[in-house]
Amino acid sequence: MRESLNDILCCPVCKGDLELEITEQEGDDVLEGTLHCGECDETYEITDGIPDLLPPEMQD
Amino acid sequence: MALLDDKDRARTFYRCLSRVYDRVNPVFWNEDMRDRCVELLEVVEGDRVVDVGCGTGFATEALLEVTSEVEAVDQSPQQLEMARRKQGLDDVDFVLGDAENLPYRDGVFDCAWSSGSIEYWPEPVEGLREMRRVVRPEGRALVVGPRQPSNRLLARLADSVMLFYTREEASEMFREAGWTDVEHHVMGSNWVDDDALVTIARNPG
Fold it and tell me: Which of A5, A42, B7, B45 gives the lowest tally of CB atoms within 10 Å of its CB?
């Protein structure tokens, strides 16, 4: 995902803003990292460029 | 109308289906119908559109032809993997997410699109309400509904895993989710005689 995508993303559960932490990047493409919701303290993984923003109970 | 009683069923169904999806689906939903729907939504360049339940990116491709600002979300990693491998879709920011719990902020889209997805939502009104939340006031939505097979056996099989609705039920669902100016278009393909219901609505804000 592009770094700027986070400007329109939010937590799927509480709709709070997400804090992006990047562990691997290529240009402005985030390959690995996390999106953390400060409101409900949930962390969503970004794997191979795709953020997993499924509600926690639907995640594998 | 039957409701999917849990999301696991939809996920398992799609996990298996994604292997043959692009070969089977054109019988029910083809390029011609897709392009007519894009015209109905009246998207113009610069509009930001979200494709809810994008699957393998069939509609995402068509939307990208009219605007470069297309976001796409689906609950199946297998379907998304196929979508991102398609030529022309490598620049799209695909997101794993649920239609009834969209991970987008309020009012960030001009239009919301969903085709071939609502029939797998356990709570379709919730999904429609979420679509309205992420669309700006005066923005629009287009939903391509399920097409009930006229063959009785197929219909029964399909009804056990999908949701089907009539024009009246569609109007009721959209209104309950807060949409206004709800209008329907019936669309068929040359391949089969079962028609799909396409619904367009406006977000009053």
Answer: B45
